[in-house]
Amino acid sequence: MSDMNLVVIGASGRMGQALIQTIVNTPGATVSGALEREDSPALGLDAGEVAGVGKLGVQITSNSQEAISNADGIIDFTAPAATVAFSKLTSKAGIVHIIGTTGCSEDDEKAIADAAKSAKIVKSGNMSLGVNLLSVLVEQAAKALEAADFDIEILEMHHKHKVDAPSGTALLLGEAASKGRNIDLDKNSVRVRDGHTGAREEGTIGFATLRGGSVIGDHTVMLAGEGERIELSHLAQDRSIFAKGAVKAALWAFDKKAGLYNMRDVLGFS
């Protein structure tokens, strides 16, 4: 099988550069395209030189249709509106679309699911292999430890520039916990506590959000009981972990049927 041709969206950003570096160092994958906004100063530059891996002969462009025309897949860590727009292109082309975008609305999710009727979409609030393993452990722990005995709280911290809260990863972990407890997360989550809140309601899942500095991503799921507490944590120390997971997902999806998948599918846990 020939190498998988991948297009990197947001090629000059920190995540885009990490993706290019990872693809270059991954057997079976190659950078075939690099996209940026129309006002990006990186337009016209070589994607490899921008990412510090040497000249690749791939020019950064804002022409998405041209970049995708010869692609087997795209990797997309952008914004909800852009991701929905790209999903329409990948659906039309019937190619792989790896989505690491967070903060999607219900309507965005529906549009992405609709695109997955023709495209091979892998979407996750976090592409890290470690985080997705953590989600499996959280689900198992929540299932084993009853709500009457253990309360669940999710604490996350990210850099000061992150615009959505709770993080996509925190919500992914919350979904894992709610699945273990067989409850609806939307109806049982507590996002804010302020003032005289009264006693904690049994069975709810709490979220606490911290923002500051350059923290890439810290997540801890606490199961707090009487006299004991279990903490399951993941600390992201380098953005390359997200890039590695995304490229692994792309290669996994290459020969799959159209559909909407997640990282649990990629890891074989579904």
H/E topology pattern: EHEHEHEHEHEHEHHEEEEHEH
Radius of gyration, Cα only, in angstroms?
Answer: 20 Å
What is the mean pLDDT?
Answer: 96
Tell me the strand order in the biggest sheet: 3-2-1-4-5-6-12
Helix content: 25-40%
Distance between the termini: 26 Å
How many DSSP E strands? 12
Structural class: alpha/beta
Strand content: 15-25%
Unreliable stretches: none
Q: What is the 3D shape? A: elongated
State the gist of this model.
This protein is of the alpha/beta class and 270 residues long. Helices cover 36% and strands 24% of the residues. A 7-stranded parallel β-sheet has the order 3-2-1-4-5-6-12, sandwiched between helices.
What is the element layout, followed by pairings?
Layout: E1 4-9, H1 14-24, E2 29-35, H2 47-51, E3 60-61, H3 64-68, E4 73-76, H4 80-93, E5 96-99, H5 106-115, E6 120-123, H6 129-144, E7 150-158, H7 168-181, H8 185-188, E8 189-190, E9 205-211, E10 217-225, E11 228-236, H9 240-253, E12 259-261, H10 263-267
Parallel strand pairs: 1-2, 1-4, 2-3, 4-5, 5-6, 6-12, 7-9, 8-9
Antiparallel strand pairs: 7-10, 10-11
Overall description:
The chain has 270 residues and is α/β, with parallel strands linked by helices. It contains ten helices and twelve strands. Helix 4 (80-93) runs parallel beside helix 5 (106-115). The radius of gyration is 20 Å and the shape is elongated. The relative contact order is 0.16.
